[in-house]
Amino acid sequence: MNIASHLTANADVMNGPTWHLPDTSGSAALERTLKTHRRGHRAGSMIELEGGKSNVTYCVLSGWLSLSKSMPDGQRQIIDFALPGDILNPTSADNASSTLQIEAVTYTTVSAIPRNIWGSLTDGLPQLSLLENRIIAGTFSRFSERMLRLGKGSAEARIAYALIELYIRLSAIGQVHGDSFHLPLTQQTLGEFVGLSSVHVCRMVRRLSRLGVISMEGHMAITILDMGTLANIAGIDPGRLENSIIPRL
Amino acid sequence: MNIASHLTANADVMNGPTWHLPDTSGSAALERTLKTHRRGHRAGSMIELEGGKSNVTYCVLSGWLSLSKSMPDGQRQIIDFALPGDILNPTSADNASSTLQIEAVTYTTVSAIPRNIWGSLTDGLPQLSLLENRIIAGTFSRFSERMLRLGKGSAEARIAYALIELYIRLSAIGQVHGDSFHLPLTQQTLGEFVGLSSVHVCRMVRRLSRLGVISMEGHMAITILDMGTLANIAGIDPGRLENSIIPRL
DNA sequence: TAACCAGATTGACCCGTGTCAATCGAAAGC
DNA sequence: GCTTTCGATTGACACGGGTCAATCTGGTTA
């Protein structure tokens, strides 16, 4: 079965970043800088607090990060996941304080690069600022699709879409094998991502399993059995299923 | 939101809109380009269809635009409003097709500038790319806050937040007088923005009115009577309220 | 091995929001 | 002036998803 034909629905979501630059010449400085500022974070550890001001650019080397916001009563909404290859904060205005809480979902290695060093890197590496732009465009596209589901999608559609979105992003960085991928999230966390209670996440996941659309081994290994149906449930317009390739830089 | 700090779009249609960049030297070319590509759109007219590929950058000179996405069944979610001074599509990847439907909410004047011309403008005007970055950062921040309300906010909180967000944005471009502003939206449209049915929008607006938090004259002139309570309902952290609302730049 | 614990699962019940439909009000057109 | 029309308003009712609470499961620690 040709999964790729179904992925075309949301090509923009697939602007998944990788660290493969189109032209590697001159990227030695980048490699060196990434290595110098590299550090690891245990799963669950807080990397940046909401409200704190940050003047570094994060490059995710491995693992998952969650970017979240909370209501005053403590209810948390995950705004986005950052996956390997992602760049965070590339364009925040100089005076802007980060209002996002950044947390390691899994063990994560990131390079936290001071803004000015990052700036000089991008100045010297046009491919890098191109990559930045692609990541920004991909982020906006992802946010838009997600807002659509948050505003107008049923619980089932939200779950289905989240699975597809993550499938596509992971696929772009080579972390999908066959039609299976590792989803390092509790149902609680997945719920915070799609705006549902963990209980209802459970109900929806079980329903999708019963329908034979997905299957789960353990509680973190997902296999997509019927991408066509899943996409349909997710509210992905079949008319937009066109041939396009995952943009790999 | 933070757009106005470095740019003011004066929506005087007769004299032509003027954009004030922090350093006006060299902006003559910008002025000329804006004027050359200027065009008007009647309220309700479609500017760009979802799925169409666009290779222009839009500068909003006057009026409101809505950027929206739809589910296959036609349910529409407004992703964002674009107000005077906004720049659309500044960084979309070259191959990226616009997946947003862009529509004029009111009579609108925009400059639709071909991507390559826009590129040469920003190359020559560092202030302009700085402005771009600020707009991107502001959009990102706005989307995050909105996703939080869509995922975790009650209907009342969503309405309250939407009013405050628009109040702040309009305030930044000088379109708030006292505590009143013109809201050129039907309840249906407001509902498509906050993810509620028009009927429930009505209920919430009426409730806020009864509470004495806002008042409406006609159905488009909003006055915020009690910003503290409104912000509280919106789930805005009181400590952060001063940062985002008070500052008139 | 047994106790333990976090997360998944399931059922019962409640409530917020959507839907439907009727009515009202005001602006626009004839 | 009268009619038309679109949007606001309100009530009645249905239902999706939240909440609470009771297991169940698998992995971890003593």
SSE topology sketch:
The structure is a homodimer of 249-residue chains.
Chain A: H1 4-7, H2 28-36, E1 38-41, E2 46-48, E3 56-62, E4 65-70, E5 76-82, E6 87-88, E7 101-104, E8 108-114, H3 115-124, H4 126-152, H5 155-172, E9 176-177, E10 180-182, H6 187-194, H7 198-210, E11 214-217, E12 221-224, H8 227-233
Antiparallel strand pairs in A: 1-8, 2-7, 3-6, 3-8, 4-5, 4-7, 9-10, 10-12, 11-12
The structure holds a DNA duplex (30 and 30 nucleotides).
Helix-strand topology string of chain A: HHEEEEEEEEHHHEEHHEEH
Question: How would you sum up the major sheet of chain A?
Answer: 4 strands, antiparallel
State the name of the first-level CATH class of the largest domain in chain A: Mainly Beta
State the end-to-end CA separation of chain A: 26 Å
Rg for CA atoms of chain A? 18 Å
Largest interface: A-B, 49 and 47 residues
In terms of DSSP E residues, the strand content of chain A is 15-25%
Mean pLDDT of chain A: 83
Shape of chain A: globular
Which fold name is given in CATH as the topology of the largest domain in chain A? Jelly Rolls
Instruction: Show unreliable segments of chain A.
Output: 1-17, 241-249
Oligomer: homodimer
Give me the secondary-structure category of chain A.
alpha+beta
Number of strands of chain A: 12
Pfam families (chains A, B): cNMP_binding, HTH_Crp_2
Domain HTH crp-type (chains A, B): 153-228
GO biological process, one term (chains A, B): regulation of DNA-templated transcription
GO molecular function (chains A, B): DNA binding; kinase activity
